[in-house]
Write a structure and sequence with these properties.
alpha+beta, 434 Repressor (Amino-terminal Domain), 6-stranded mixed sheet, 19 helices
């Protein structure tokens, strides 16, 4: 049973409702008043046995003390404080603030959520304006039609007397170009209106594959079977609307199926239960490539991960060019929709040191400062021939967990275009985000 940050606050509130002093409750449950005071101020975690004793003494269920419907408020208030560069002393009092002023904590949490959502929209719109092929073609068509109308109108205006036949031709050209302009404008407006603020439309086979996998929670139970039919798995899938996306999905299915057969789910679960989440130990224990273990962990069924208490995980894969070939996003760790990501990612550092596992604690740039733990590895896929380049593929597993004690944090972004870290030495283009 999870004991969250406000368990102590609820214990104190229940005690006050029953009119008990701290010393009285402490005596009943067999702890010192000073220790109970620390628990009530959320400065000590309470174990399951003590929580049960407290619940019995207060006449409530243990769930009533342990359930934390306000955990979002705590995290939201903490994120807002980090964005405002609050002092460390103030950060340590967030639990107390949330317990005493839940209304204001809710305002802070909702505001923080709204800011994060708007930042994601900015990133998506920037990607779309930069890379969306249809948008570029539609704008080019409109500009072409406008230019044609302007040129014809200029000829009619500046040429004085024009023969009737030529005048009729020019009028016909204006009519046709204006109709083309109107049709293009209507099509562009409909295209923009059809896209929601958080769903900017699919523009590539890779995105169709990711939409399909996202809809299934990146869980493909069929992969655990000894034999599969990739063609049958993608047949009839609405998200995979093109031949290219279906072929790409089949390629990933073949790879992930090979991973599943090399490291069966039962063996992986047993190893995780015994030794915890340590990719380097798993790779050594099973004698498997490090990147195979990273992919296998990232595609664990959600129910399996939750039952084992594993953190949320994301995965990105790229090739020599740095272009992202596969993306499983993770809340708080933004991934660019097109092209490559932050050049400081361990994903790219691994390309410089093939076949050498990397572990690095990360913090997202800006005032949010969310922390993650990453594992990266680059492996040779093939060698094109003697004295010819090798084809590499790098993988990076991202864990929604703080780095280990004493780990040096590496500040990273999603892409230079939307990164607020303006003084970064690796910046390759100006950012559209300005820090207040």
């Amino acid at each position: 049973m999870a004991r969250t940050a406000l368990t102590g606050t609820r214990i104190r509130a229940r005690r006050n409702l029953r009119g008990l002093r701290q010393s009285e409750l402490a005596r009943v449950v067999g702890v010192s008043p000073s220790y109970l005071n620390l628990i009530e101020h959320n400065r000590r975690k309470v174990g399951a046995e003590l929580l049960g004793a407290l619940a019995q003494a207060l006449g409530v269920s243990a769930d009533a003390l342990a359930e934390d419907s306000d955990s979002r408020l705590v995290e939201g208030a903490r994120a807002a404080a980090l964005r405002s560069d609050a002092d460390l002393a103030e950060l340590e009092r967030i639990d107390e603030f949330t317990g005493r002023f839940p209304g204001w904590a809710k305002v802070l949490a909702e505001t923080q959520t709204r800011v994060e959502r708007l930042e994601r929209v900015v990133e998506q719109l920037n990607d779309r304006m930069t890379h969306d092929p249809y948008l570029g073609e539609a704008l080019h068509e409109i500009i072409s039609a406008v230019t044609s109308v302007q040129s014809t109108a200029t000829i009619l205006n500046d040429s004085g007397e024009i023969e009737p036949d030529w005048q009729a031709r020019f009028h016909r050209n204006i009519l046709q170009d204006s109709a083309r302009l109107a049709e293009g404008a209507v099509a562009l407006v409909n295209y923009l209106d059809a896209a929601k603020s958080d769903e900017t439309g699919l523009a590539a086979p890779q995105e169709e594959v990711e939409a399909w996998l996202t809809g299934r929670g990146f869980a493909l139970p069929e992969l655990e079977a000894p034999q599969i039919d990739p063609l049958a798995m993608v047949a009839g899938q609405v998200e995979l609307s093109s031949d290219a996306s279906r072929q790409l999905a089949q390629d990933w299915i073949v790879l992930f199926h090979a991973d599943a057969q090399a490291l069966p789910l039962a063996q992986l679960s047993a190893a995780l239960a015994g030794g915890g989440l340590a990719p380097e130990i798993l790779a050594a224990q099973f004698g498997l490539p490090f990147d195979l273990v990273l992919r296998r962990l990232a595609l664990l069924p959600q129910a399996q991960s939750e039952s084992m208490g594993l953190p949320a995980m994301g995965l990105v894969i790229c090739d020599n060019s740095g272009t992202l070939l596969f993306r499983r996003g993770l809340d708080g760790f933004a991934l660019p929709r097109f092209g490559g990501g932050c050049p400081l990612w361990p994903l790219y550092q691994a390309l410089q040191r093939p076949h050498m596992p990397m572990r690095r604690a990360l913090v997202t740039s800006g005032r949010m400062g969310r922390r993650f733990l990453s594992y990266a590895y680059a492996a040779t896929q093939s060698v094109l021939g003697y004295d010819k380049p090798a084809v590499l593929r790098a993988s990076m597993l991202i864990l929604a967990a703080d780095g280990g004690e004493g780990d040096e944090l590496l500040s990273v972004g999603a892409s230079c275009r939307t990164c607020p870290q303006l003084d970064c030495a690796a910046r390759r283009e100006p950012s559209i985000l300005m820090m207040a």
